[in-house]
């Protein structure tokens, strides 16, 4: 009898109340993956899309050819930035629960991706972040107060109250605006990189999306343009296993890695341990070298885990085991870098505890300053007249009329 075709519905390996199961993850031993020359064609490094580049082993020791040459000072600074990002996240999560801001998204468990990549790129390189890349802004010097004020939509809000929280930008630091529309930053990054190449510049672009966003059309458009025109761009897929409440298998992660999606277009794909700061830094360096020397784009898949909820409007206990993050085989990026520094004699538990307390105080002081410019419920309030600005070079008559009508209503109510 001829078997009938069946519709396949992806299922997560475990659900609430069940034991976490990460047996589907293809892992490599630390140091087991060879580091090829950065100018090799994609067909010669297809293994990088299925294996997993790792530097730090389970005991916190660096292994293999990918181990980068980073000083103790650089590594301590990387640890500080990851911890600062985590403390900032915790404070803003609490602010949302207190009703001070309307919405927030943490990067808990993914801090190494932003910090390591930002360190490996040059100041002139353009970043096109996703909504879990707050570490990039912190790394490139955006003040905590400015980030907080954007979430508060107050009188100091960089977006002037026109965007939802976490949609930061920093033109001076070459960081594009975060977009709530999934994957739109990918074509933007490729277009910027193409323009850089046309102008003969050495600057490259880098962009980030989550595993779920790889199902968006913009992801595929961007890869096609990047491949055809050999754009100097790094395209990152942050595979944190979950797209809101949907397991990564729904975006196509069951059949092959997300890194392998570039191979059909001739784009090298690299799977990297996203919770290993040293590995992420090294792979980013490799991809940046390719881009700067004219060898085109690289697609990097960061294998990581979303430690918290998708956002403050999400309850992950409804669709995954509560202890799943603790069971994730690649651990916590902060603890892994800390252990490496301790092993090397560059850090201690006492220093770590003291730094956390120092950063908590820094974040708290920034919050006090931020709320002095207003909150959602307490003044001062953003001037409503700014809603008419920044759309036209010169305000047209009909909008000017509306502005005057608004001011008249405002005066009459006072």
Beta-strand content bin: 5-15%
Structural class: alpha/beta
Helix/strand order:
HHEHHHEHEEEEHEHHHH
Instruction: Please mark out the parts with pLDDT under 50 across 5 or more consecutive residues, or reply none.
Output: none
N-to-C terminal Cα separation, in Å?
Answer: 82 Å
Tell me, briefly, the overall form: globular
Strand sequence of the main sheet, in spatial order? Answer: 1-2-3-7-6
Mean pLDDT: 96
The biggest beta sheet, please? 5 strands, parallel
Helix-residue proportion = 25-40%
Helix run count = 11
Give descriptors for this structure.
414 residues; 11 helices; 36% helix; 7% strand; alpha/beta; two-stranded antiparallel sheet; 7 strands; 5-stranded parallel β-sheet
Topology:
Elements: H1 72-97, H2 111-120, E1 126-128, H3 134-139, H4 144-152, H5 185-198, E2 205-210, H6 217-228, E3 233-239, E4 242-243, E5 246-247, E6 269-273, H7 277-292, E7 298-303, H8 324-327, H9 333-343, H10 349-371, H11 397-413
Parallel strand pairs: 1-2, 2-3, 3-7, 6-7
Antiparallel strand pairs: 4-5
Helix pairs in contact: 1-2, 1-9, 1-10, 2-7, 4-10, 5-6
What does this structure look like?
With 414 residues, the protein is α/β, with parallel strands linked by helices. It is 36% helix and 7% strand. It is built from eleven helices and seven strands. The protein has helices at residues 72-97, 111-120, 134-139, 144-152, 185-198, 217-228, 277-292, 324-327, 333-343, 349-371, 397-413; strands at 126-128, 205-210, 233-239, 242-243, 246-247, 269-273, 298-303. Strand 2 (205-210), helix 6 (217-228) and strand 3 (233-239) form a beta-alpha-beta unit.
């Amino acid at each position: 009898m001829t078997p009938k075709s069946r519709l396949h519905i992806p299922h997560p390996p475990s659900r609430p109340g069940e034991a976490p199961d990460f047996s589907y993850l293809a892992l490599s031993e630390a140091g087991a993956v060879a580091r090829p020359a950065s100018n090799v064609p994609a067909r010669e490094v297809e293994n990088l899309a299925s294996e997993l580049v790792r530097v730090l082993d389970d005991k916190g020791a660096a292994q293999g050819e990918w181990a980068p040459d980073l000083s103790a000072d650089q590594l301590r600074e990387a640890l500080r930035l990851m911890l600062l990002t985590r403390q900032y996240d915790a404070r803003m999560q609490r602010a949302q629960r207190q009703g001070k801001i309307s919405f927030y998204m943490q990067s808990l468990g993914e801090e190494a991706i932003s910090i390591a990549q930002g360190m490996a790129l040059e100041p002139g390189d353009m970043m096109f972040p996703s909504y879990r890349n707050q570490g990039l802004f912190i790394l490139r010097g955006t003040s905590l107060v400015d980030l907080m004020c954007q979430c508060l939509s107050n009188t100091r809000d960089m977006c002037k109250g026109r965007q939802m929280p976490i949609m930061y930008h920093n033109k001076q630091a070459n960081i594009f605006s975060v977009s709530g529309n999934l994957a739109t930053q990918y074509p933007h990054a490729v277009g910027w990189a193409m323009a850089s190449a046309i102008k003969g510049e050495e600057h490259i672009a880098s962009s980030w999306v989550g595993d779920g966003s790889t199902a968006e059309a913009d992801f595929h458009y961007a890869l096609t343009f990047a491949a055809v025109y050999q754009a100097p761009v790094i395209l990152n897929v942050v595979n944190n296993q979950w797209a809101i409440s949907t397991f990564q298998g729904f975006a196509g992660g069951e059949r092959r890695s997300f890194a392998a999606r570039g191979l059909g277009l001739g784009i090298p794909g690299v799977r990297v341990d996203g919770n290993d700061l040293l590995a992420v830094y090294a792979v980013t360096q490799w991809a940046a070298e390719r881009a700067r020397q004219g060898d085109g784009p690289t697609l990097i898949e960061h294998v990581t885990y979303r430690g918290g909820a998708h956002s403050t409007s999400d309850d992950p206990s409804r669709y995954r085991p509560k202890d799943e993050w603790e069971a994730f085989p690649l651990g916590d990026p902060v603890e892994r870098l800390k252990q490496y520094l301790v092993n090397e004699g560059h850090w201690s538990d006492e220093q770590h505890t003291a730094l956390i307390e120092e950063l908590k105080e820094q974040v708290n002081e920034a919050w006090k300053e931020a709320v002095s410019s207003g909150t959602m419920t307490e003044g001062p309030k953003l001037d409503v007249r700014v809603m008419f600005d920044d759309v036209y070079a010169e305000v047209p008559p009909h909008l000017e009329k509306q502005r005057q009508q608004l001011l008249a209503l405002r005066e009459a109510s006072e």
